[in-house]
Amino acid sequence: MPVRVSSTMPTHVAGPYWATDAVLVPVGHAHLVVFGGPSVRKLSDAVLVGEAAHAVADTGGATAEKLLADELELVHAMRELTSYQPTDVRETARHIATVAARALSCDVAAVRVQSGGQATLEVVRLGSGEGIDADPQIAGRDAGEYLEAAATMTDAMVEQTVGPDPEVWKQKVVSRMTLPIGPEVDLGALALGHAQGHERGFTSLCQRIGRALAQSAEQLLNQAIVHEQLTAERHSFQRATMTDSLTGIGNRAAWEAALVSPPRTTSAGAYAVISADLDGLKYINDHYGHGAGDAVIRGAADMLLSTLRASDVLCRVGGDEFLALLPDVDANAVREIVRRIERAMASWRLTEHGLMPRLSIGWAVFDGDWPQTVRAADRRMYSVKRQHNGVVPAERPAVGRVAAGRRRRRSDAGTKPERSDLGPPAPPPARASAMGARQR
């Protein structure tokens, strides 16, 4: 006998079909015919049974127009999916979810991909018109775990009605279709849902399109994975070729690249260059070994990094030479940064040998010509270095020793202990430096 459904809200009646008004008519043991619409409730059971019998008799073959429409719908979805050029896994996963949601008129979609020991989860919500909202906040508490398990399925799982659990999306859905992506186990999974308020299920055509999209998505994702790996390797190689192996900061190549593409500034052309050079590195290498010299170079790089800003570019461009590119600074700002470096240098110690290394520092504000700006910073640096060499004898460059417990016994009463054995060299006479920054 026919079963009549009448409700103020859409109700699941059979298969993918939801309705507020419907009549379900069984025909034999193999068919169920669903009539929808408020007017069908007025028809008698006898009329409905007759109409249902005719409907079953007419389902022996679909019309050419219906078959063509179905094929065109599938072709359009596949073309939209495969015309995409994969760049990275996350964007490709978002593309797959978006295309699938639009092709099947779903309200929400989610894709999870497992690659390189990392999982990528992209969740989208179909907005009004063609709008798509891709927001991690849309994902439900069970999305990752649910899709991880779904990746191991061998075929699609179609749920024409679903409950609140598992929560794949925070938005409530009434029906859901979940598919593994490709035959490769654990690569990923795609889930699609119809939300409450747009009640419907997944027809046989929807399931066919969903399976085709999920299978084709495997190739896109594999391309994206390979693309990401190649990009990571290229960036790793670039970092290696532009990184100083001793200090871990940029090398000469990195400096030249920074001048070609300097950091962005809030005001055009507001840059400065700092030039720093270690004093007495040859003396340290000759008297304490190259291991101590390397430690001094690394210490200088660390000290400069700790005092410069995160936006500044620091490079080692020679054995004991450093250059720093500072965006968004004027003359006053760069002077203050130099003073900060000098304060850090005053407490710098190489504990293994009790050495107190020192840097000669110069700076210049960018004048529109990078080579000229660097030369100006170097000139100031060399001016400071000449002052340092005037304070400490040439045979003992500007590198001090920390006094250990007591002064070394004098060799005779008339000889003063050497300055470099007693502590930091005395500062130069108090006067304005060629750098424009106070000297210690």
Which features does this protein show?
440 residues, 15 strands, alpha+beta, Alpha-Beta Plaits, six-stranded antiparallel beta sheet, 3 domains, Beta-Lactamase
Task: Explain what this protein looks like in three dimensions.
- By secondary structure, this protein is of the alpha+beta class.
- It folds into 3 domains: about 5-60, no CATH class; about 65-230, 2-Layer Sandwich (Beta-Lactamase); about 250-420, Reverse transcriptase/Diguanylate cyclase domain (Alpha-Beta Plaits, 2-Layer Sandwich), CATH 3.30.70.270.
- Helices cover about 40% and strands about 20% of the residues.
- It contains 11 helices and 15 strands.
- The protein has helices at about 45-55, 65-80, 90-105, 145-150, 205-240, 250-260, 280-290, 290-305, 330-345, 370-390, 420; strands at about 5-15, 15-25, 30-35, 110-115, 120-125, 130-135, 155-160, 175-180, 190-195, 270-280, 315, 320-325, 355, 360-365, 400.
- The chain has a 6-stranded antiparallel sheet with strand order 6-5-4-9-8-7, sandwiched between helices. A 4-stranded antiparallel sheet has the order 11-12-10-14, sandwiched between helices. The chain has a 3-stranded antiparallel sheet with strand order 1-2-3.
- Strand 4 and strand 5 form a beta hairpin.
- Helix 2 (about 65-80) runs antiparallel to helix 3 (about 90-105) and helix 2 runs parallel beside helix 5.
- The longest helix is centred in the middle third of the chain and has 38 residues, at about 205-240.
- The radius of gyration is 37 Å and the shape is rod-shaped.
- Residues about 390-395 and about 405-440 have low confidence and may be disordered.
